[in-house]
Design goal:
304 residues, alpha/beta, TIM Barrel, eight-stranded parallel β-sheet, three-stranded antiparallel β-sheet, elongated
Length: 304
């Protein structure tokens, strides 16, 4: 007589053959064998004891199925970002983009409000810190109705594209080129601004990938406005947004070029100034800094 073992799930006894027959074609033999080893042998205590149930295989299902990996269900992606052409128009109108690195998501709304009061309605929040997505979501939820647009900076991985879009971002910005990030941006229909510094990169991204608007980073290390002026002579249909080394003193050199839509900077959103404003509750210094940056950019752009 075949050995019977007690299924710990329903407390009834089954033979190994009964288990194997029931799960034939559903589970590997090794999986059934492993489950069999978890069942306790039935100890006979006289005539009629330890008999198999009249419904052997049907009752033996729970534990084996429990061992199967659960299917993960993810929340469907639902947010549709703004049209890329519209985003470029907004960036072009703004002229100076604050490149923001936050240590706390609690600083995001206060800072973005200060920027808005100073005339800057776009915030590039960089994904350099763990609170970036939360910060973007706070700004989007509380200030999008007031006209603030959020861009995601320092995007390095394609997975970050979805996170940024769902958090309210309407543009994806990278410090370099990533085909994987580009593919995800194409899939989601969001503006992608990868950074370039050489003519070969401009040629590749504009011809093969049809990108007509690019980031120039780090601008200060690769010739600054002089390099972009040279780019304009050979790539007249390509627009740029320089960041890295842009200051209040030189922003006019950049935005005064016909192939520059706007320039990104950090000098008016320094982390220590943001922390001080948040702690004191006085955001006026940052409002003034935003106004000063905006005025410098508009003055430079007027030279076009």
């Amino acid at each position: 007589m075949s050995e019977k073992r007690t299924d710990p799930d329903d407390g009834k006894a089954y033979t190994r053959e009964e288990l194997a027959e029931f799960y034939k074609g559903k589970y590997k033999k090794s999986e059934v064998a492993a489950y069999w080893e978890t069942c306790k042998p039935v100890k006979a205590k006289g005539k009629g004891k330890g008999k198999a149930s009249a419904e052997p295989a049907a009752k033996a299902k729970a534990k084996v199925k429990a061992k199967a990996k659960p299917v993960k269900t993810e929340k469907p992606l639902s947010r549709k970002p703004a049209d890329p052409e519209e985003v470029v128009k907004r960036v072009t109108a703004c002229k100076v983009i604050p490149v923001i690195a936050l240590d706390s998501a609690d600083h995001a709304v206060g800072l973005s409000t200060a920027m808005l009061e100073g005339g800057i309605d776009i915030a590039e929040i960089t994904f350099r810190t763990s609170c970036a997505a939360e910060a973007c979501k706070k700004v989007y939820d509380e200030l999008s109705s007031k006209g603030v647009m959020v861009l995601a900076g320092t995007i390095l991985q394609p997975e970050q594209v979805d996170v940024a879009i769902e958090a309210g971002c309407d543009g994806i910005i990278s410090p370099g080129w990533s085909a994987e990030v580009w593919k995800q941006c194409q899939k989601r229909g969001v503006l992608y601004l990868p950074a370039v510094v050489t003519p070969s990169e401009v040629m590749l991204l504009s011809s093969r990938y049809k990108l007509k608007c690019l980031k120039f980073f780090p601008a200060g290390n690769y010739g600054g406005a002089g390099t972009l002026k040279s780019f304009g002579a050979v790539f007249p249909d390509i627009k740029f947004m320089p960041t890295g080394g842009v200051t209040k003193e030189n922003i006019h050199d950049f935005v005064g070029l016909p192939n520059v839509i706007a320039a990104g900077g950090t000098w008016f959103v320094k982390p220590e100034d943001v922390q001080k404003a948040h702690s004191s509750g006085d955001w006026k210094p940052l409002v003034a800094a935003a106004k000063s940056a905006k005025e410098a950019a508009d003055k430079g752009a007027a030279k076009k």
